[in-house]
Amino acid sequence: GSGAAAATKIVELSKKIRELSAELEQEKTRTKQQTFRIMALEKEVQKRRQMLCLCNLLSGTTASADSPTIRCLQDKLAAAQLKVVEYRNQVQASKQELKVAQKVLLSELGEDVPLQQLLASPTSFRGRAQQILALQTRVSPPPPPQEQVQVKVQGGT
């Protein structure tokens, strides 16, 4: 009797526990997936709100100008504009330096010297100023003027 009925009941309940445990694991997995989906959707909503605020800001409609999102975007915009000004100034300074360097190169090399050809040639090219210096050291200074002695040849007349 009662022992067999209890054993049967235990087997049935064990089976039910296994089924419920499997169902519980499936629900945990589904819940985890749905949590990730909710997080992704919340991020998407946040992005869209920022875009909407940015669009409103750019179009001049400021529905809630005090919102932290708009303030954050305004700060980012101001920082980006400062960077642009800084980079523009750096570019201008670099252009000026380049012009000076080009003038120096032009005065050193001469006007009809192709730079790409100089860069490609394996020879050691010396600029005009260097060549002038080298030539000046080679040429000895002219001897001081000496009194010319004129010898008159007296011929018989």
TrEMBL record:
Example of a GO biological process term: non-motile cilium assembly
One GO CC term on file: centriolar satellite
Disordered: annotated span: 138-157
Keywords: Coiled coil
Ranges of Low complexity composition bias in the record: 147-157
InterPro entries recorded: CCDC13
Coiled coil: 70-104
Protein's name in the database: Uncharacterized protein
Organism: Salarias fasciatus (Jewelled blenny)
Organism phylogeny: Eukaryota, Metazoa, Chordata, Craniata, Vertebrata
